[in-house]
Design brief:
With about 375 residues, the protein is an all-alpha fold. It has 19 helices and no strands. Helix 13 (about 250-260) crosses helix 14. The longest helix is centred in the C-terminal third of the chain and has 21 residues, at about 310-330. It is globular.
Length: about 375
């Protein structure tokens, strides 16, 4: 199909739970601030609730204008937290240049602003990417003795570990990345970096030699703390018996729960399961919905909402596109339509050419 042949073994967890040779990572979102005073927290919660309630009555642009008016009035009255909230509002709306300017203005007084600047400079949001500067801000958070920076230090350590892993802004060192991620994961502490816990699961299943029992442990910790990516990964580890005894019932339980919560990678593997079990009508209905996601707009949105890595979302969409095309081509659970099948085969190749060819080679080999 896309010019790459493979063996049956490469379609299993060995390839599917790894991001190629190196994982493609994302920054950790700003952690919640536990240091609001009860009065300040109530005020900010009231502001957030106001936005939610008014969303039904205002168009979005008018709502943002009104929110900014309220924040500007709070700033005029001397509310220090309102400065950060205005910058964060800009950030969440994707107005990165305005957010950068606001965070730069208050960085010496607000650790959250420093953290966000680290993310923005590293990822090139609102400015040219400057990984060295992003690393510098993350180190400031980690090294700060201030109690108000403490809730940010696990997340900053995850981001600094990412820099060492990618060799951007810091010397490439998988050992240092692992050390920082272990610190950030804090033995599975739910108040630490759950993202680091999940990434450790991926890391131990990627590194050579693989350490699949450690991978299973960290995915279990992250899943227990609500991480959606790790819930899907656990399903696959149970399914293929990697790092744990094979257990199809536990695998399907994890995959179905993860799929219901929006894990597209888990959804793609359920499509594959339905196809191989010859549940073709179910396979068609489920795969078409996933295959029809908009790859340009939906992948970033799904990643933002679910916290799943974009590469895994893309792989899940590729799997769904491939199996939907296969059903169309062969008339399984749907009227045969080779022209439409070709469209979805092409989409699978565009989303992930290596995976599409592996699936094609496997099905030919098995004559499914």
């Amino acid at each position: 199909m896309c010019g790459i042949e493979s063996t049956e073994d490469s379609v299993g967890l060995k390839e599917d739970t790894h991001c190629g040779n190196r994982m493609k990572l994302t920054s950790e979102k700003l952690p919640k601030n536990p240091f609001y005073t009860s009065q300040g927290a109530a005020k900010n919660q009231k502001f957030v609730q106001w936005i939610k309630e008014k969303n039904d009555h205002y168009n979005h642009a008018n709502l943002m204008d009104k929110a900014l008016q309220i924040l500007n009035e709070r700033i005029r009255k001397g509310d220090a937290m309102a400065y950060f909230l205005r910058g964060q509002l800009y950030f969440e709306e994707g107005w990165y240049e305005e957010a950068l300017e606001q965070f730069e203005e208050i960085k010496e007084k607000d650790h959250q602003a420093t953290y966000q600047l680290g993310v923005m400079y590293y990822d090139g949001l609102g400015t040219a990417a400057n990984a060295e500067k992003g690393v510098e801000y993350m180190k400031k958070i980690i090294d700060s003795p201030c109690p108000k920076a403490r809730h940010l230090q696990f997340a900053a350590a995850y981001n600094l570990g990412r820099a060492h892993y990618e060799g951007k802004g810091a010397k490439r060192s998988y050992e240092e990345a692992e050390r920082l991620w272990l610190f950030a994961a804090d033995d599975g502490n739910p108040k630490a970096s759950v993202k680091a816990q999940s990434i450790l699961g991926l890391y131990y299943s990627t590194k050579e030699p693989k350490e699949l029992e450690k991978a299973f442990y960290w995915h279990s910790e992250a899943c227990g703390n609500g991480n959606l990516e790790s819930q899907g990964a656990l399903g696959l580890m149970y399914f293929y018996g990697q790092g744990i005894r094979q257990d199809t019932e536990a695998a399907l339980h994890c995959l179905r729960e993860a799929a219901e919560r929006g894990n597209v990678y888990a959804q793609g593997h359920l499509v594959e399961y339905y196809y191989k079990m010859k549940f073709f009508t179910k396979c068609v209905a489920f795969s078409k919905r996933i295959a029809d996601y908009d790859e340009v707009h939906d992948i970033p949105t799904i990643a933002q909402v679910t916290g799943c890595l974009p590469e895994f979302i893309s792989r899940g969409m590729a799997m769904a596109s491939f199996y939907y095309a296969r059903c169309l081509q062969l008339g399984l659970g749907i009227t045969k339509d080779e022209a439409t099948a070709q469209h979805y085969y092409s989409q699978a190749c565009r989303l992930n050419p290596t995976l599409a060819d592996e699936l094609h080679a496997l099905l030919i080999h098995q004559r499914i």
